[in-house]
Amino acid sequence: MKLFELYKKNNGKELVRYYHHYGLLGSAFFWGGLLHGSKIEQEQFREIMSYKIQKKFHKKYFRRNVAIDGPMIGNDNTALFGEKIIWVAWFQGMESAPELVKLNYNRLINNTNETVILITKDNIENYVKLPQIIFNKWYAGAIPNTHFSDIVRAQLLTVYGGVWLDSTVVMLGRLPSYFSDEFFMYQSLKPGKNALVLPFSNWALASKANNVLIKRTRDLLLQYWIDNDKPHEYFIFHRMMKIVMAEYPEKASRITPIDNSQPHAVLVSSKNMELTEKEIANMFDFSPIHKLSYKVETPFQKENNKKIFNWLSNHK
Description:
It is globular, with a radius of gyration of 20 Å. By secondary structure, the protein is of the alpha/beta class. Helix 3 packs antiparallel against helix 4 (39-61). The chain has a 5-stranded mixed β-sheet, with helices on both faces. Strands 1-4 form a two-stranded antiparallel ribbon. It folds into 3 domains: 2-61, no CATH class; 72-253, Alpha-Beta Complex (Spore Coat Polysaccharide Biosynthesis Protein SpsA, Chain A); 262-314, no CATH class. It is 47% helix and 12% strand. It contains 13 helices and 9 strands.
């Protein structure tokens, strides 16, 4: 009964299609039958299956030669070469963004010395040059906005360098010095890293132009979307970056080791418990950058999101 309840709760039909696509349905039923009790067991199941999926990605894309041919759409804005830029995207335009996204964006442009550029559907071709097939798939809806933003961030950082921040990231202070590194992303560090297949985040990235880690990830993302007409996987960027880190282990080892748990503290806690304003303030002290969400996924989040928004509005 418990297994059937989990099946319904976790959109079991989609999971069946997901694992069937990768030829892992048998493994999913086997491990799901063993690990379906506690939340820890369910996490173990997800990581086991993620490991198996990553092996398939690795076999297909590791050291794969990528040659992007065909017509291109868009432009590289050469006037911006050499500038220190913070890139943000809200494809529908900031005027239609959720209030948290607007607040984050206004805080960003008012609290940084860097040039801030917002990418929208109306201006994207002024900054981003991609194969026509990629743009066409996005315009047709075959590439969802979430996955397209992964391509866009990789392309922008490859061509211009700078910093990428998701629109739900709030800056409470200046960018830390490691955002000026050759390449930076938040990671899950040991001991937690040992159990994770994809131990890093891509909601905040920093890179010099033409850095091999982000450039190679960009190339693999483009190849994936040239080969596919829909996403079979949410963490495509992460899977490709994992492959690239295996291709360039020495460069990957030079990424400044900053754990992603503290910038997630407010978000994770807001899902799991009722927060006081004091608790929110204490957790905001953990990091100058925090990943937040305007979505409501648990009973606690509706009220917590209001408190978080009010705190940010009153502490500029």
